[in-house]
Amino acid sequence: MGASPTGSNFKQRLTQDEKTAETRRRLLDAAIVCLIDRGYSNTTTSEIAERAGLSRGAQLYHFPKKEELLTSAVEHLIELKFNELKEKVSRLTNENDRRAMAIDLLWESLNGRLATAWIELIVASRTDSYLRESVRPASDRVAEFINRSFEELFPRPENAGAYYELIPHIVCLTLEGMTLERMTLNSELTTKILTALKTYKL
């Protein structure tokens, strides 16, 4: 007769599964911190293991190759970004100027630490085909999330053109470009662009 799913064997296996998930999470969190602090080119699996408080052997057991670890970090990062954006979207009230509020929260998010890690991965994927295979679908998921979450902020008027539904994406891409230039972009120009995005009649 087989073991009961509520018996000790099941509980022991569940505990091991939880330990495995926790170890992987620690490694992925550490990988993201390394990307932020050190950049993609200077991120090593040895440092990731050290930051995670794990042995090199434990890291190799879960992720034998750096590519596997960092592509898994892409998915982990996207989940963290989704959770962050969902929390920020939940702040939006039913006030009239929801577009301005949305742009403010997007700008806040794009200048956060998670966005820094994402930029490192996007730039690195230009010359790393293995990484690009993970970054591209993750980017598609972000675009889909934006489409679902922000279309209500830009209601389609009766006389809108065929490309009106692209406006949320245009806004996001504009803000992402500004984020890449934030170290050199004139602060006065940044303010003017943000104001224009909030107030320009679409």
Question: How does CATH name the architecture of the largest domain?
Answer: Orthogonal Bundle
Poorly predicted runs of 5 or more residues = none
Can you tell me the number of structural domains? Answer: 2
Strand content: under 5%
Query: What is the residue-averaged pLDDT?
Result: 83
As for the CATH topology of the largest domain, it is Tetracycline Repressor, domain 2
**Order of helices and strands, N to C?**
HHHHHHHHH
SS-derived structural category:
mainly alpha
Query: How many beta-strand runs?
Result: 0
Helix content: over 70%
Q: Distance between termini?
A: 69 Å
State the name of the first-level CATH class of the largest domain.
Mainly Alpha
Determine the number of helices (DSSP H or I, runs of at least 4 residues): 9
User: What's the story with the biggest beta sheet?
Assistant: none
Shape by Cα distribution: elongated
The Cα radius of gyration reads 21 Å
Brief descriptors of the model:
202 residues, mainly alpha, Arc Repressor Mutant, subunit A, Tetracycline Repressor, domain 2, 2 domains, 72% helix
What do these coordinates show?
The protein has about 200 residues and is mainly alpha-helical. It has 2 domains: about 1-65, Homeodomain-like (Arc Repressor Mutant, subunit A); about 75-200, Tetracycline Repressor, domain 2. The protein is about 70% helix and about 0% strand. It contains 9 helices and no strands. It has helices at about 10-40, 45-50, 55-60, 65-90, 100-110, 115-125, 130-150, 165-180, 185-200. The longest helix is centred in the N-terminal third of the chain and has 31 residues, at about 10-40.
